[in-house]
Amino acid sequence: MKMSLKSDVIKCEESRKINIVLEYIDSGLPSFMNRIKTHFTESQVRYLIYQLLCGLKHLHTDGIIHRDLKLSNLLLHRDGRLKITYFGSSCICQTGFLLYNKTFGTIWYRAPEILLETFSYSPKVHMWSVGCVFALLLLKKPLFNGKSDEDQIEKIFQIIGTPTEMSWPGVTNLAGMQRYLLSSPPSYVGCLCDEFKRRDTSERDLKLLESFLQLDPCKRINAKDAVENEYFKRIFTFHDSTAFAKWMNEKLAEKGVKKG
């Protein structure tokens, strides 16, 4: 059409706008959970978290920091594949560290170093978010549901414990921590396992969760090591994806939800 400019041939209009067309995915993970109204089994949670970690491993290898990893930014295909979406806040990081920027991330999934205004941060902020997603899938509710940065910090310390210079070297130099200490708050010991007693969560789950929810980012596991963790040794991708997809579609059929 561009080659033929005759009046009797429809004109091909051009635009300076760029449109990005993404693959179609059947459902967001939160909407699927709301529709089936049941807990995932331990093996199903393991399969979903494994896929999330594989995605993050690829992003980190390519130097991409997502910066808004949360449940609502995860999609679920009807064949059982999990996809990371929404890259509106993402950036490229080739050095491994970025200067502090408080404007990114959803508060319930925001890493403590960001809440406490660290000087710089790394892809390890994602691993904290993975821990928050992991906990939500196990509990079916947010582990830390603060209403402000200060409230979020308080809720994290209540469950994980208040950091010290011994447990997190340099933490008292962070502006957010200095403001927190000025209010003379109680010193929390914290016990993550207490939050999961009613859920009958396995020690294996809790051990992995603790590796994500380390206050000190230097002690927090990275995506590569997490993927290779003993916890995932029993995953056989084809078998798990087939079994999960079958279960997923059976649940949707029970609820009378159309596929596709």
From TrEMBL:
Single GO MF annotation: ATP binding
Gene3D superfamilies: Transferase(Phosphotransferase) domain 1 (1.10.510.10)
Keywords for the protein's UniProt record, in alphabetical order: ATP-binding, Kinase, Nucleotide-binding, Serine/threonine-protein kinase, Transferase
Name of the protein in question: Protein kinase domain-containing protein
Family statement drawn from the similarity comment of this UniProt entry: Belongs to the protein kinase superfamily. CMGC Ser/Thr protein kinase family. CDC2/CDKX subfamily.
Keyword DNA damage appears in the UniProt entry: no
Presence of keyword Kinase: yes
Annotated Protein kinase domain residues: 1-232
Annotated SUPFAM superfamilies: Protein kinase-like (PK-like) (SSF56112)
GO biological process: regulation of mitotic cell cycle
UniProt xrefs under SMART domains: S_TKc (SM00220)
Organism: Hymenolepis diminuta (Rat tapeworm)
PROSITE patterns the record matches: PROTEIN_KINASE_DOM, PROTEIN_KINASE_ST
GO cellular component terms attached to this protein's record: nucleus
InterPro entries: CDK (IPR050108), Kinase-like_dom_sf (IPR011009), Prot_kinase_dom (IPR000719), Ser/Thr_kinase_AS (IPR008271)
Domain of life: Eukaryota
